[in-house]
Amino acid sequence: MHQFPKDIGWIEVICGSMFSGKTEELIRRVKRALYGRQKVRVFKPRIDTRYDDTQVVSHSQLKLTSLPIERAEEIFRHLAPDTQVVGIDEVQFLGGEVVQVCEALAQKGLRVICAGLDQDYQGRPFEPMPQLMAVAEYVTKELAICAVCGNPANRSQRIIGSGERVVVGAAGAYEPRCRKCHVAEPAEASPPQTLKLFD
Ligand SMILES: Nc1ncnc2c1ncn2[C@@H]1O[C@H](COP(=O)(O)OP(=O)(O)O)[C@@H](O)[C@H]1O
Ligand SMILES: Cc1cn([C@H]2C[C@H](O)[C@@H](COP(=O)(O)O)O2)c(=O)[nH]c1=O
Ligand SMILES: [Zn+2]
Fold first, then answer.
1. Is the CB of 147 under 6 A from ligand 1?
2. Beta-carbon-side half-sphere exposure of residue 9 (alpha carbons within 13 Å)
3. Atom 13 of ligand 2 has which residue's CA nearest to it?
4. What kind and span of H or E run contains 87?
């Protein structure tokens, strides 16, 4: 990765479809900061209770302790005076104010690592991710594997019937798909799969 600057703050955005490894990458970066004896606080929107109420949990069951918040501004009151790194998962659920909050933290000299969906189930930009990516110093886009054809996947196919933009869920509600296999409305799930190295 990059040679990070010293004595100034910055924003890192990890974006991509569901199952692309955003949360794993957030956890990896936070753990490395902890190995570097940095003071870290991790946050997630309270709405995300899929795997755990408080922990950030990846689809592969990696876990990290976090503070659930309803609004991005709550981050300020949870910081210790010596906090150096802030991690935020599912940042797309925190609304436009999260952009100003991340900017303020970076201006104060903190490293801010945000992970979130860049597209909704219809393939539309998922605000406030475009705004956050515009002001970030570093943007990493992760790709999953298309559940239909095996190509790199940058979209999240909804496989349950809802037209709401926000529907919290994991496998069973969404699957990753490439642009060729994705459709902008809820669709049939692809056949279930078991991972095996040998037949
Ligand atoms: N089709 C898929 N493509 C890639 N990873 C998948 C797929 N289905 C399940 N996974 C699992 O999802 C993990 C990534 O989970 P996670 O970091 O929580 O992703 P994200 O936060 O982007 O939704 C992978 O390491 C893998 O174990
Ligand atoms: C595409 C899409 C997703 N969501 C929800 C579903 C999950 O709860 C999260 C994404 O989690 P992940 O860590 O990226 O797997 O977002 C949604 O509400 N609306 C959508 O269009
Ligand atoms: Zn495909």
1. yes
2. 19
3. 18
4. strand 85-88
pTM for the whole structure: 0.97
Instruction: Please tell me if the CB atom of residue 167 comes closer than 6 angstroms to any atom of ligand 2.
Output: yes
On whether residue 157 sits in a domain, the answer given is: no
Cα–Cα distance measured from residue 156 to residue 133, given in angstroms and rounded to the nearest whole number: 19
CATH (domain of 18): 3.40.50.300
ipTM for the predicted complex comes to 0.99
Nearby residues for ligand 3 (ion, Cβ within 5 Å): 146, 148-149, 151, 178, 181
User: Would you say residue 53 lies in a domain?
Assistant: yes
Q: What is the domain range of residue 106?
A: 10-144
Residue 168 lies in a domain: no
Residue 141 assigned as binding residue: no
Q: Which of 6, 1, 183 is nearest to 111 (CA)?
A: 6
**What is the 44 CA–ligand 1 centroid distance (Å)?**
18
Q: What is the per-residue pLDDT across 39-86, written as a single tens digit (0 to 9) for each?
A: 999 999 999 998 999 999 999 999 999 999 999 999 999 999 999 999
Count structural domains, the chain: 1
